[in-house]
Write a structure and sequence with these properties.
Chain lengths: 573, 529
């Protein structure tokens, strides 16, 4: 959710009206935004916008433009004048693989004010980082146009073939060196990692303007307060996004009083003029409005509402979309704006009247029954995160590291199946999904050694394991509901766990075999598997003292873990 | 002296009841009291541990059968060396006994196990008693060139006599401590004074002395208790079998006294809350959905028309599964969703206009949103229309765990599918939720943004204490979501409730992690509601 800081007075100047805090809050809500903070002293307002597909709002000029529509100061679609120019930008085919698209324009006739420069830098950053996916998709360059000799060429070159002085550095560096040593180079080098040729923008004198999307040159690529002649370009891997970004920048500069002129982008024999500000059109119908919003509106009303949202609408409801909006994919996107301008609060409410029968998930019902049995046995239910760590699931339970787990030991010891491991964990503590629950209950006991005993706790919930799949070498994920319980007190032994298992099975109308197993988490000769109709349905045992020692639990503990999916299948058979 | 004031005329029945309520400790203490008054004496006489006697006395005192007199007393007890000498004997006597005729002091001390810092006192005391004489000897060792090493002691006849008996000080140490200073016999005084002068043998401290005596009521009870014979503590199976219970008296318990706490089995408060949420949805006619935690990007995002370059779809937005990296999806469903993304095929949409990657769609992640279940449900051939659907889904996003981010969290999500539903019905549904889950009909609906709904709205409800709180998000599924999954365009109202937040309000919890509290005391103390 993008958050931007605007100057309050700058915003009010651009809107052309004083804005009280309430009015500002209300205007922001039309833009799916909310006021995070207003600092009158610093003359600042911080707004967060929900809609990541409306980047024009991240410029104070864009937000003010919408406000002027809502307030009736300037309804309808905004138009700006872009003078044609003979200046051109030549695109070499070599950029095709690495970063194929570029567009540019010129702005002049006005000095860059301090407030505007701040906004321009913020807008460029937000567009690059958020809309441009950290510059991978789109990145913007702004230069002092007076120092640029046209035509400018956009091409890709080998990393060591060109050197120039990058912004903020005192000496020349090759493109490779920039990626390795310059702070911006290091930050964004991942974008070019797999490429052999790097994008470069040079002017007719052969001066390097920038190394997109990494860094500008120190001589032309630094815009200062009071500059009055700017060259603005954006490079992209996404053609559609590029068009939107150029339109957002063009409108922002035009709203500031700059005169714009276009640039001709030449790609071989193909020529295109940028920025492309021709509005796209979408037709809507009153029927569509009625169907989505339930509102019975007339053409005139629809036109009035959409003009507040800065569209142009013909009498036949052909809607022209401002070129800086890239979020309109379908008539429903326009109809939402009708609803917003009408006021969500003003739309009548209707109850749902059609009868439908409630239907529960039978496995979840079964899980509730199993939980009730353990409450009846005197156990306190606990709730753990499903995220866990290999350390908790294996090492702390005296199991060998999971990677060493041959199929044989997995067969012998239930629940040593490989857990599902996360590639990008935030911390080691939460780096995989639990494959069994007993380790988490042991962790619970270890955190409660100061509380009175007996301690009897259980948890029912999801576990996940990586299992062999259909083909050879194929793997698949199996998810089951488990119920695990531990009992810790001076006089507990295997019998208590066995009694709980026997009680549960008999209450479910199941008869099973209890077969002894060896399991490193349990004392030898005090662990068993539950087998029903030849199917493993859980296991139980008395925890090995060394596991207790690891968890600093100073009373004996017995544990059981039931596979509720397996039991449910048996019960419903 | 009568200690019970006010209405002290107990009738026989009441006294009998008192007698029957006496615990074994109380009985024994009661019987011992006429002859003993201090706690140690009483414990001795009653053949109880001091703690047991103390408990008996405490109970008797509560019942006003015993009175306590507290006086300040100087008490003599053994100090560190006193304890040691009581066991081993005093060092000077050990020295004297170890001394054979005329011997080196050092050697004698060593033989008697006397440390070097005790030697001077030994020699001093023994010389004062005329038990030894000491003179300078001839050094036999180069190292012992000075001091005691060269001293030689000779036992006198007086010494020979004293060595054969216990010294008065030794007799004194054998007494049962602590002793009251003012209760010490004149004969013992010299020994006391001797020992007090020496280091860490005796301690004299001011203490409050408790003396216990029977009250008038206590005397009456004792007389009856003495004749009433034994009282049984418990009903035993044996008594029931042989009928001997008929001859027994059973002790009356103090039923009003506090007893140790026990903890019963119960549901976790949050699990119980979620159970009730589930029951309410079932009662409102919603059908429950289920699905995997390990999900493909396809169901979590692509099927919901989130473009593959969406910012929620990178390492900061979702947990990626290491192995297996990819899952399987029905190729037919993938094709329709792909065409919807690329060119908006099937609807009036322009689509996102980018090349859709099937490989990315198959990538395994941990479910980031409960809406994935709605996408799966909508694609099922047996989808009931009209229908209402919900699920309580555990979801995962890579966030640093803090007061507002648990390692994983719950979302309650669902949809309502029916021809002809509009935003007006969505508003009606949201009001119903506010009434059901926040107990208020004061709601505010603001424009919101979700990639898969248009229009999108956020629901706020007015909490009686906390003011406006965000309950959840909602909207009408975009045609680009519905058409590829359901096969036709139809109104589908989508909604999600931040159930963890509502539970926090409900339980007055400010830290999300407390919903998953691992503190047993907290879980045990939580009221059932």
């Amino acid at each position: 959710m993008p958050t931007v800081v605007f100057s309050l007075t700058d915003l009010q100047d651009l809107v052309g009206q004083q804005l009280s805090p309430d009015k500002l809050e209300s205007l922001a809500s039309y833009a799916k935004g909310s006021i995070e903070k207003t600092n009158q002293e610093a003359n600042e307002v911080t707004i967060s916008f929900d809609d990541t597909n409306l980047p024009y709002l991240w410029s104070v000029e864009g937000f003010a433009r919408l406000c002027r529509g809502i307030l009736g100061i300037e309804p309808g679609i905004p138009y700006i004048k872009v003078a044609g120019s003979s200046l051109s930008l030549i695109v070499d085919d070599s950029v095709g693989v690495v970063r194929p698209y570029i567009g540019a324009f010129l702005a002049e006739g006005k000095q860059v004010s301090d407030a505007f420069l701040k906004q321009l830098i913020q807008l460029q950053e937000k567009l690059d980082e958020s809309f441009g996916r950290k510059r991978e998709k789109i990145s913007i360059g702004i230069y002092r146009a007076g120092q640029v000799k046209f035509p400018v060429t956009y091409k890709a070159v080998p990393p060591d073939s060109v050197s120039f002085v990058p912004l903020g550095f005192p000496h020349e560096m090759s493109l490779r060196n920039i990626l390795e040593e310059h702070p911006k180079g290091k930050e964004y080098s991942w974008i070019l990692k797999q490429h052999k040729m790097y994008p470069l923008l040079v002017d007719a004198k052969g001066e390097v303007l920038s190394f997109p999307p990494i860094i500008n040159s120190n001589s032309t690529g630094r815009v200062l307060e009071n500059d009055d002649h700017l060259f603005i370009e954006a490079t992209a891997t996404d053609k559609h996004g590029l068009k939107i970004v150029l339109a957002i920048l063009a409108f922002a500069l035009a709203d500031r009083g700059f005169s714009l002129s276009s640039i001709e982008v030449r790609r071989g024999s193909k020529k295109a003029v940028t920025p492309d500000l021709a509005p796209e059109k979408v037709n809507i119908t009153l029927g569509q409005v009625r169907k989505l919003l339930g509102l019975e509106l007339k053409n005139k009303e629809v036109i009035g509402l959409l003009e507040k949202a800065r569209y142009h609408v013909s009498t036949t409801l052909s809607v022209s979309i401002p070129p800086y909006r890239g979020d309109i994919l379908h008539p429903c996107d326009i109809i939402e704006d009708i609803g917003i301008m009408y006021g969500f609060g003003s739309i009548e409410e209707k109850p749902l009247t059609t009868y439908t029968a409630g239907k529960s998930n039978p496995l979840h019902d079964f899980k509730k029954i199993a939980r009730e049995l353990f409450v009846g046995l005197g156990y306190q239910e606990v709730m753990s995160p499903i995220l866990s760590s290999l350390n908790m699931l294996s090492a702390r339970m005296q199991l060998s590291p999971l990677s060493d787990n041959g199929k044989d030991s997995a067969k012998e010891s239930p629940a040593i199946d490989n857990p599902v491991v996360i590639e990008n964990p935030m911390s080691e503590t939460y780096s995989c999904l639990r494959s069994w629950i007993i380790p988490q209950l042991m962790d619970f006991l270890s955190k409660n050694t100061h509380n009175p005993y007996p301690q009897k706790v259980f948890e029912a919930g999801r576990v996940a394991m990586v299992k062999p799949g259909q083909g050879s070498g194929q793997k698949t994920v199996a998810e089951h509901e488990h119920l695990a319980a531990v009992s810790a007190h001076d006089s507990v032994d295997y019998t208590e766990a066995r009694q709980a298992v026997d009680f549960t099975l008999s209450q479910l109308g199941l008869a099973g075999e209890i077969k002894k197993i060896e399991h490193p988490s349990f004392l030898p000769g005090r662990a068993a598997r539950i087998i029903i109709d030849g199917k493993a349905a859980g296991f139980l045992g008395e925890l090995h003292p060394s596991v207790l020692e690891t968890h600093k639990v100073m009373v004996p503990v017995v544990a059981l873990e039931l596979d509720l999916d397996a039991l449910f299948e048996l019960v419903t058979k | 002296m009568e200690h019970i004031t006010g209405n002290n005329s107990f009738d026989a029945e009441e006294i009998n009841a008192l007698v029957e309520s006496l615990h074994t400790y109380e009985r024994k203490v009661l019987a011992a009291l006429p002859q003993a008054s201090s706690i140690s004496q009483i414990a001795d006489a009653a053949k109880l541990q001091e703690v047991e006697a103390m408990r008996g006395l405490q109970w008797l005192s509560n019942k006003k059968l015993v009175s306590v007199l507290e006086t300040a007393q100087e008490v003599v007890s053994l100090d560190k060396n006193g304890e040691k000498y009581k066991k081993e004997g005093l060092p000077e006597m050990r020295f004297l006994r170890a001394l054979v005729k005329e011997s080196s002091v050092e050697e004698t001390a060593r033989n008697a196990g006397i440390s070097s810092d005790e030697i001077s006192i030994c020699l001093g005391v023994l010389r004062a008693k005329g038990a030894i004489t000491v003179k300078q000897g001839i050094s036999t060792s180069i190292s012992n060139d000075a001091g005691q090493g060269r001293l030689v002691a000779l036992r006198t006849p007086q010494g020979d006599r004293l060595a054969g008996e216990k010294s008065p000080e030794e007799y004194f140490l054998q007494k049962k401590f602590p002793l009251f200073l003012n209760g010490i016999q004149p004969d013992d005084k010299p020994a006391l004074e001797q020992l007090r002068k020496r280091k860490s043998i005796l301690k004299v401290e001011k203490k409050t002395l408790k003396q216990f005596s029977l009250t008038g009521l206590g005397n009456k009870v004792l007389r009856i208790a003495a004749v009433s014979g034994d009282v049984s503590d418990r009903v035993t199976p044996a008594m029931l079998r042989d009928g001997s219970w008929k001859q027994k008296k059973f002790r009356r318990y103090d039923v009003e006294v506090n007893v140790p706490a026990v903890s019963g089995g119960k549901f976790h408060f949050y699990a119980s809350f979620l159970d009730r949420v589930r029951e309410r949805f079932l009662a409102m006619g919603f059908a429950e959905m289920a699905g995997p935690l390990v999900e493909t990007e396809f169901w979590d995002m692509d099927a919901l028309f989130m473009p593959q370059s969406h910012s929620a779809r990178d390492i900061h937005g979702a947990y990626y599964v290491q192995d297996p990296k990819y899952g399987d999806i029905d190729p037919k469903v993938i094709e329709t969703v792909k065409a919807s993304h690329e060119v908006g095929k099937g609807t009036l949409s322009k689509g996102w206009r980018y090349p859709f990657s099937v490989e990315q769609a198959r990538r395994h992640i941990l479910r980031t949103q409960g809406t994935a279940l709605s996408a799966r449900a909508m694609s099922l051939p047996g989808l009931g229309i009209p229908g209402k659907y919900f699920s309580i889904a555990r979801c995962f996003r890579p966030d640093v765990v803090d007061a507002t981010h648990a390692p994983d969290f719950n979302q309650v999500e669902g949809f309502v599918i029916e021809e002809g539903l509009t935003f007006q019905h969505l508003k009606g549904l949201l009001r119903l939720f506010a009434e059901e889950f926040a107990g208020t009909s004061q709601i505010r609906i603001k424009p919101g943004y979700f990639p898969f709904t248009e229009p999108s709205a956020e629901l706020f409800a007015k909490h009686p204490q906390l003011g406006w709180i965000e309950l959840g998000g909602s909207g009408i599924f975009r045609p680009e979501v519905v058409k590829p999954l359901v096969g036709r365009e139809i109104s589908v109202l989508a909604w999600g409730i931040g159930i963890d937040r509502i539970a926090m309000f409900n339980f007055g919890i400010n830290d999300l992690r407390e919903l998953f509290s691992s503190n047993l005391a907290v879980l045990r103390a939580m009221k059932v509601s």
